[in-house]
Amino acid sequence: MWSFSIPKKDGYYYLLTAEGGTGYGHAVTMARAESIKGPYILDPGNPMLTSRNDRSLPIQKAGHADIVEMQNGEWYLVHLCGRPLPGSDHCILGRETCLQKVYWNEDGWLRIQPDGNKPKEIVADSGLMECKWPVPEHMDHFDSNELRIEYQSLRIPLTKSVASLTERPGYLRLKGKESLSSPYQQSLIARRQQAFCYTADTCVEFNPESHKHLAGLVCYYSTRNYHYLYISRNKIGKCLGIITCNNGKSSFSPKEEISIDGIDRVYLRVEVDFSSLKFYYSTDGDTWKHVGDELDASILSDENCKSSYGFTGAFVGLCCQDMLYGEKYADFDYFMYLER
């Protein structure tokens, strides 16, 4: 049992607690006491919020809540949740945050409006003035000297030994580090997948000299779970292929890597539609060709990952590897992320 805070209202101290684990058994329960030291009396309607007995709900794993009173006296509850893919228990968007409108009943216990204890997908607003936040542009041309706030790196800070926006203005230069399966130094920037359906693409200039030089577009959950559309070099020259890692087991598609020898600029794209993930490439940015097989996006989730439980959900981004440790770099002209 765990609680964010102990608010006081109408002479009672309230414990708003999380229980049942952080997965599909998650729930919010309440107890109250006239003294902060107790004894605390349990809410007879516990759990006051849960999804655990109804897998048909679009909002699952509801729990870990806190409350806020609005300026007009109305109350809202904020809580964590997960939204599984339709027909699945895999939550590729990771842990998300929801709001529920609540009220205090005649006995002084908190209840979900209008009734019941299940999370609602649509909630009445408070009637207060909306606070509008700027919507980030879906296209990033890397024209600034700083990365935008939505990007994240993996474990290590993005120093000049890893990434640069100034060595070639208008490009993001990533300097190759260890493999995507390495738990140590990686050259990777990515942003969270925030919708079930999206398209992301980039254009990269990369001149690998070995099969141990790779760069490209990655859909990533962890060092053991990812789909990677990469550019590298094989015996016949510069090439393109896909590595899928599913709980540490790697597979490759297509069976033979695609030759892109002599092509300096290569465009890479991924289209994700729920559990379907498809990679594409282009040599001119207009005509796109499908690469490899249709892949399973649902492996990029807590439910599939057997070695850890990270709540992060899937990411999509850019990366570069130099497993000869010479910091072979790749220049990315832009990164585009567009939800559908």
Helix content: under 10%
Q: How far do the termini sit from each other?
A: 39 Å
Main pleated-sheet profile: 8 strands, antiparallel
Broad structural category: mainly beta
Spell out the helices and strands N to C. EEEEEEEEEEEEEEEEEEEEEEEEE
Write the CATH fold name of the largest domain. Answer: Jelly Rolls
Tally of discrete structural domains:
2
Would you state the CATH class of the largest domain?
Mainly Beta
Computed Rg: 24 Å
List low-pLDDT spans.
none
Shape: elongated
Strand residue content: over 45%
How do the helices and strands line up, and which of them pair or pack?
Layout: E1 2-3, E2 8-9, E3 12-19, E4 27-33, E5 41-42, E6 49-50, E7 60-69, E8 75-82, E9 96-104, E10 110-112, E11 139-140, E12 152-153, E13 163-164, E14 172-175, E15 187-192, E16 197-205, E17 213-222, E18 225-234, E19 237-246, E20 249-259, E21 265-273, E22 276-282, E23 289-296, E24 315-322, E25 329-339
Antiparallel strand pairs: 1-3, 2-3, 3-4, 4-5, 4-6, 7-8, 8-9, 9-10, 11-25, 12-15, 13-14, 14-25, 15-24, 16-21, 16-25, 17-18, 17-24, 18-19, 19-20, 21-22, 22-23
